[in-house]
């Protein structure tokens, strides 16, 4: 950073003052102590009086308020040459001066140097100078951050990033897996480039489009693509940048933003994480935030008020649409609500093709297989997956990424880092039975997802893992599938009970039991899959501002609550009994699989199913509840 001569002078002045006072005090101290330092010997006060009576004293220099004297004396005892001798003079000896004058002794008094006053002045001046210098530095820094002088106190100015032609390097070709959203925004881009085609038939482009979806699904990436494709001025800002601790600043920034946008229309204004400023008004315990509400009111007025904002298209993104104010979502403000969901298998394949362009993949790597193995992955998850695979490839000093690195990357993304493998012991054998229990039940049930692999390699908090890969993306799940998943989750605990006995069961099934209980309760209270009947007994409209569960209340009687508990217990007990029977009937193949798993530590799904088919048959259809 280049400094001006004014800044250098401002910071040098306190340092020069300190150096001056230090030099002045040092100089005064040297002058005061000069006579003391040249005295080579000392004498008592009594000997001094004797020398004075004998006329040997020629000169006396008084220091320290007449407490110390440097005497020039000459006499036979001193070798008949002048010597300077130091003597300590007692307090309260006023007759000494008269004696010295009577003996015609030359007297010279040296006052005490007032160095303490210098230090006092220095202390009084130093702090104000440093304070002024610090304020000047902060003022200059604020000017630099704000973009120039005169804007240090410009709290009400918009902080939006502005580009006449936003060159983000992202186009619609770089966005995959969200075809419906792309189509919506291609229409917006077409209006900005060729508005006459729409106006000719009386069509009006929406004033605002809000992107809604889980994190990582590509909402911000879509905004970058719009900026790169439209070729019009583009304003980008986060919702949190509107809100400050000073009341009225947010509203002022909204006015300033839309004023600049109108001056550069047609243009696009992108507000990321709009839920930071667009939350419902008058909500929460104790009332709302006045500053946030004023900011929202100004935003509502600018988007659709008396004046209007012709040519300004507002695009917003959020993953918390449930907390937004209803006035913000009405037609005329945000006319369209575009949902960006987690991609399906075809969308995942398109996303992988986009992110694989700059990756060196081995010919054996099949993106279709990766897409099938990653249900529920968002676009950001898939990008991270390929990046983790590339990092692992570099770590292993390979030239191309193979399926081995991809498999390890998937495991890392889902379950965490790989841990240290357990040694062959009772604990390792127990974990092996637990994981094989999950896998054997999942393999023998018709409606369960197929096993992808079973491993004893620890990852994250898990000491062993069993992976299931769904055959297809499942938007709807049947009762048979839920029952199969409950039984598969119980397989590990049941295997421990059958092989080691109930007193030896471990805490390893804690997470499994939580999932089992949750699925069984949802069958009863949400999906109507129990003897209670087709009733939805859960309130799904809880207040998000009071927490996920604080605002919800029971909408059924104590008798129904008791029946719910009985049905949940009945479902889990029924599944436990069926799972126990499967484990007992297939004990021989389970023991063989456990020995093989301990030896190899990982068994893939195809090998697992082949071994199971050689020893057992698929059981008959499980009897479900009527």
Please tell me about this protein's structure:
- There is one protein chain.
- With 626 residues, the protein is an alpha/beta fold.
- The chain has four domains: 5-115, Signal recognition particle alu RNA binding heterodimer, srp9/1 (2-Layer Sandwich), CATH 3.30.720; 163-339, 3-Layer(aba) Sandwich (Rossmann fold), CATH 3.40.50; 345-415, Helicase, Ruva Protein, domain 3 (Orthogonal Bundle); 426-615, Peptidase M41 (Methane Monooxygenase Hydroxylase, Chain G, domain 1).
- It has helices at 5-38, 45-53, 95-102, 115-146, 179-193, 195-199, 219-230, 249-263, 290-303, 326-329, 345-355, 367-373, 379-395, 403-415, 426-444, 479-500, 510-525, 558-585, 587-600, 605-615; strands at residues 41-43, 57-63, 68-73, 83-88, 106-109, 161-163, 208-212, 234-238, 267-272, 312-318, 336-339, 451-455, 465-468, 602-604.
- The strands form three sheets. The protein has a six-stranded mixed sheet. Strands 1-4-3-2-5 form a five-stranded mixed sheet, with helices on both faces. The chain has a three-stranded antiparallel sheet with strand order 13-12-14.
- Helix 9 (290-303) links the parallel strand 9 (267-272) and strand 10 (312-318).
- The longest helix has 34 residues, at 5-38.
- The two termini are 79 Å apart.
